[in-house]
Design a protein that fits this description.
With about 60 residues, the chain is mainly alpha-helical. It contains 3 helices and no strands. It has helices at about 1-10, 15-25, 40-55.
């Protein structure tokens, strides 16, 4: 979880912007917030992969 936060803050530049993205329901995630996926290891990896996708210009 700590490494996910570090990655998120690198992508969004601030903790506040990252946490806003993390807690906002997302149409591309079936209207779930990214935080809804953080209760499993596979969910953490999925959200980390979404952060990487954002870095490369994908909409997530």
């Amino acid at each position: 979880l700590i490494s996910l936060y570090k990655h998120g803050m690198e992508v969004f530049n601030t903790k506040d912007d990252f946490e806003k993205w993390l807690t906002t329901p997302n149409v591309l995630l079936d209207k779930k917030s990214p935080a809804d996926f953080l209760d499993t290891v596979s969910g953490l990896k999925f959200i980390d992969n979404r952060l990487t996708a954002i870095e490369y210009g994908e909409n997530v």
